[in-house]
Structures
1.
Amino acid sequence: MSGVLLWVSCGPKENPISVGVAGRGGKSQRRFGLCNGITFASFSPAVTDPSRSSEERVYEVVLKQAALVKEQNKGTKRSLNLNKPIEGDFTQGDLLSVAYDRCGEVCAEYAKTFYLEAYPIRLVVHYFFVEIEIEIDYTLSIEVWCRRTDELVDGPNASHITPKALDRWEKRLYDVFEGRPYDMYDAALSDTVSKYPVDIQPFKDMIEGMRLDLRKSRYNNFDELYLYCYYVAGTVGLMSVPVMGIAPASKASTESIYNAALALGIANQLTNILRDVGEDARRGRVYLPQDELAQAGLSDDDILIGKVTDKWRSFMKGQIQRARMFFDEAEKGVSELSSASRWPVWASLLLYRQILDAIEANDYNNFTKRAYVGKLKKLLSLPAAYGRALIGPSKNLTKMVTTK
């Protein structure tokens, strides 16, 4: 299977598959305020009250997602309507089964080269011929959507992507949430968001992260970088926790668990950034806080030269420490997840943390050496993750709210 399977046209479709999401009263209750098909009434955290820190604004999304979970727990649920005929060589009953199967094929293909270092939704360790199953895996549809979105700016056709193309992709997202998917992968996602309390905001925010990659290659401070990390990775945790589920025995607040999932996404993205400093610089991008570089006596020129100095080592130690702090915060919430979800998330967390160790082992040379975790260490991480997954919910998880 080639990467072409993941590439999608962002152009408008004349006849999307008609699925329909039925809300209370049998009719969709979603109202998104479409204006000319592209401009939306609900705003991203990036443009709401910029006087507050990024962490404070992002936490509003956490609260909104947690509120949806509480609403569903009270018995308010959405459902998917497949009463209308759907064209194709399969019956209506086969549609979703085929859609999820195709999503699984995409994820399995990426598992060979990418999945052990990627989104912390579900770990399919095909690399070691071991597969971890989580019932009917509705997370597959989310994974594929994230991959397709990422491919828009980092895939083979990225040079042709424009802001308007991303606007069309966002319009398509609204159609998916309204139950009007354009293809099989969209159909699986429409089904998933109809069954679980998944909010559209994290999906929109991930698209906003793609917009940033089109227009922004420098970040003045960590507040700006934090928002970017939320957009491109923190959002994944907020998308997936409603599907993975929270352990019935958990006494933690829903907000604290979602905040831990957000922290894992931030930690993973910071790790990506620290691993890929040289590679990103060769593409004209520096995802490091400019003010902190200056405080360390460094500049973009030092990164382009790519020489490891004492100043660089000192700077990197601080950056790695920050990433580990986010991993520590994420750990507080993993044990609160449902028993079926804890193992893959622990495995993802432990594997990603080891990339930071590898950067240190390379003497902080992330200019010409790529930090990676060897196959044996990856394999050994699985039983360690399983052992941690056996530990159930903690009684002491406190609400993690940033009050800067």
2.
Amino acid sequence: MDELAFGVTGENLHYGMPINPQLLLQIPGGSSSGSGVAVAAGLVDFALGTDTIGCVRIPAAFCGILGYRPSHGVVSNIGILTNSQSLCTVGLFARDPSIFHRVGHLLLQASQTVVKREKRFIFADDFFQYSRIPKQKTVHVISKAIEALSGYQPTKHMNVSHYIASNVPILKEFCEPYTKLHQGTATLQALSTIMLSLQKYEFKTNHEEWINTVKPSLGLEISARVRVALNSTYDNVKHLYKARAELRAALSSLLKDDGVLVIPTIPDFLSKHNSKRKMSHEFEDRLFMLLCLAGLSGCCQVAIPLGKHESYPISLSFIAAHGADKFLLDTVLDMHSSLQEQISLASSLAPLPDFNGDMDASELLKEKGNAAFKGKQWNKAVNFYTEAIKLNDSNATYYCNRAAAYLELGCYQQAEADCNQAILLDKKNVKAYLRRGTAREMLVSYKEAAQDFKHALVLEPQNKAARDAEKRLRRLMS
């Protein structure tokens, strides 16, 4: 493991770095690298490790195995030399989901009683901006696996960063250094900073005297982290703990006892052994932005392998509310067979055509819809746009394009509903206002239609179609 559990690569000055069985030139991830590698290599059926800021989840993702970070405090830390008592947990690695489930229950000392409840899955769409793995192999796999099972509600999508910004009031004071960043990125960067500050403060409190007395020999990276922790001053410690409590409350309110949040476990570009065994600062920043949600809040998280993309392991994570560990472990086991089927299907599909260097499955379906629309195959276009929306329901263009096809079919109410959704997602979508205006005109809602065309003219004063439509409606209403 990384010395003092203070690293994320798996390197140790005294004992070297374990070899990642999935990719020999790929770092195994840390700090619990030995445990992760032992499981991934098939040397043991399961292994324990500690997870402070990602020290089980990172190796699980890099080595392509299951990794479990329990809710903070539900598994005893007795016998552990703690890095940071507010963040440290005893976690678990395994390859087989049945063993993973059984050992997890033993750690939790949980009963085997099954509590039947419907499961709600929420995709954190904003988190997936940090992963360029095609959604065909991630979001689509999870969605299709859920569709094949009973007891699961239809999946939802949301911007979790915006939710957190609205429900963690103290976060505003931590976001000030990141005002130049996009709001969602600023929110996650602030949460990451709070988590890392809390770790450094508690590490300093726990170990400063020993380090200054013993002066241990440490690797360069770990030594640098230790120096930063010991040399830092902490004037707002109470605010760190308050942010932790508010984030836990916000996620508990969102997830309750039946919700599962889906995020990428790690970003999509990985560090190799031959790059001086270091992660780039950009990768580390994004890594902690993804790991801080469960790390800081103390919620439980399971990293789940979903096959490979371009020879690299794919890992998505399920997060449940603090204390919902048994529910989360049961869900992972329940979904396993269905997930394996979808992973196999996704891996056997031909690679999607790359129109612009970075097109996922939903964009491909949109392009197919556009082609069908140009060929005047309106029903076919509607079907393609509908499939695109199923994969990504936060893209205004998909709704707006389907509305155009509905208009051609004379389905004016459906066109109006699609435009409503497009405008909700993008208030400056001129085409959505024009198409909603047209639908409302055909539904004889002249006043509302005129307002839509006026709004389009405000956004694009030279838009001839909007100007002509407004004049036409003025004559009709007079």
3.
Amino acid sequence: MFSKLALLSAILTAFSVKAQLVGTYQTETHPSISWQKCTKGGGCSNVSGSVVLDGNWRWVHSKSGYNNCYTGNTWDKTLCPDNKSCASNCALEGADYSGTYGITTSGNALTLKFIQQNSNGKNIGSRVYLMASDTKYQMFKVLNQEFSFDVDLSKLPCGLNGALYFSAMDEDGGMARFSTNKAGAKYGTGYCDSQCPRDIKFINGEANAEGWQPASNDANAGTGNYGSCCNEMDVWEANSISAAYTPHPCDGTQSTRCSGTACGGSSNRYGSSCDPDGCDFNSFRMGNTSFYGPGKTVNTNSKFTVVTQFITDSGTASGTLKEIRRLYVQNGKVIQNSKVNIPGMSSSLDSITSDFCTSAKKAFGDTDSFSQHGGLSGISKAMSVGMVLVLSVWDDHTANMLWLDSNYPTDASPTKPGIARGTCSTSSGVPSDVESSAASAQVVYSNIKFGDIGSTYAA
């Protein structure tokens, strides 16, 4: 619902930005991870993959030395006097995944630590992408398919978000479309989402230094003139208190660069080519306060499986998305998604459909930018092309994650439908607080499966 890039902090000034050239000081070795491809008749088979760190966390320096291209939350004016010069002057370095960033894999499991102390300071948050090869992202075409994974977020308190989602990024990170991008998917370039984030340091093979404004509440971030927009399917945004899944359609099918207020944001939230709000299903927000959380029906004190089904109107991969269905499996028990309990909405609703989205926007009094950008049929077009799997952990410098786990907006009555989203205090989630109190927080994603509907879990 809010920009995932602006809300993630980097370890220190040297490791807080991505570029388009490639450095030679640190060998880039992607941590390996396996996942499974499943069919109804043939069961599941292992697929060997890996993960790559988003370029925004990497050290970027002068291509012929150690000078930082970006320090604190400002650009070096000598190396980056303009966007094109910056891209040609700056090199993106390889990553020490475990030592610097707290990112480790084991078999089919990925662990992302929220805070990782290291010799250079500390890393805060991370984002990685699933790779099909050393130079290409794994592309998922989810129409008429099912996606499942196990997650342990028992150590994610209020204010944190373990997010797993699909983004309509280029398979090669943008190298083919933009000749000045020499780093590509191998170094985690090409990020985009439905918020059209303007804090991305390099977009379309160029820097975003021109017009850069340092953030007043984040020592590592800022915004440039440009943003990067694309379709986004939030399969999972959650901590131990609240969870939501949310499609965000855009007008096109691939990433596009926007400029200024056309990127949306606080000054013009609905002015971009994408839907920033999406159509979210959060069980707590939908009126069932006992369904998800510690000791509840889906008990976040221990690991569980999240299953998401992308149903089309024809029941085939060539059809148009009509429903996004959710269920859970925990301790060998299949748990159907919670039902809606909101005045003005049908109590039979328990999945994301066009009827659900329309009635929720009306019941909550929300702007219906979802339907304005094509709704489910809009994001269906991007899904048919293919999307990249993103796995992350982050804190929120914009809204303290209150939109996920507390009452939001904070100046509205929590008794108004749609305002209460979880049990966290409205004073929770301040990044400086959670970065201190939740230093041991982490999320573990494992057992990723993808295939025919009904093939990735045991009923």
